[in-house]
Specification:
Order of helices and strands: HEEEEEHEHEEHEH
Number of strands: 9
Strand content: 35-45%
Helix content: 25-40%
Shape: elongated
Number of helices: 5
Largest sheet: 5 strands, antiparallel
Strand order of the largest sheet: 4-3-2-1-5
CATH topology of the largest domain: SH3 type barrels
Number of domains: 2
Distance between the termini: 43 Å
CATH class of the largest domain: Mainly Beta
Length: 188
């Protein structure tokens, strides 16, 4: 859950060209202090990110806003830098897809790649053509349950899931619960 106050502070720092300092917890739980030149706030799917130049690491970064604490403007102004992408959303999407995830899945979809790309949000993963009638969807996440939900949402396509056994078990459980919920009820 993102604190609306954090969004307000971060968006104000982006607007005003003011450096920002905050505590950050990465996906492994390691906490660091960061000082950044914030560029933009981005919402992708169910998460909020801030795209910023990290002054300590001297590189562009995207930070999940739900993982940062105590964002405070420093009073130091900066001149905007050129973002190494067309826009902030593209930068976040690339940084998410480029980093390794704890869990990966490959799904063969029986649909042309162009159709799958039109119906599957680009931040969910990548789609590569196999032939004119099928494609392969690649995705990953640190949370197996969220990955399973994402795969289940591909349910409008015929598919073959090649994933870790634990993911397949979660998907089977989702399928059983859905099947149980849609059975006709006996009349009394």
């Amino acid at each position: 859950m993102v604190d609306p106050e954090h969004l307000t502070v971060i968006a104000g720092a982006c607007r005003d060209g003011e450096c920002l300092r905050f505590a950050y917890r990465d996906r492994t739980g390691t906490e660091t202090r960061r000082e950044v030149e914030p560029c933009a706030v981005v919402n992708l799917g169910r998460r909020w990110y801030v795209v910023a130049w990290d002054r300590g690491r001297e590189d562009w970064r995207s930070f999940r806003i739900d993982r940062l604490a105590r964002p405070v403007p420093t009073g130091v102004r900066f001149s905007p830098r050129e973002l190494p992408a067309e826009d902030a959303a593209t930068f976040v999407t690339r940084s998410i897809s480029a980093r390794p995830h704890r869990h990966e899945v490959r799904v063969k979809l029986r649909v042309p790649a162009d159709e799958a790309r039109r119906r599957v949000p680009h931040w969910w993963g990548t789609i590569e053509p196999v032939d004119e009638h099928s494609c392969e969807y690649h995705s990953g996440d640190d949370d197996l349950h969220w990955l399973a939900v994402r795969v289940a949402m591909l349910g409008s396509f015929d598919m073959e899931v090649d994933g870790p056994q634990e993911l397949l078990d979660i998907l089977r459980g989702i399928g059983r619960r859905i099947e149980a919920g849609v059975r006709p009820r006996a009349r009394t």
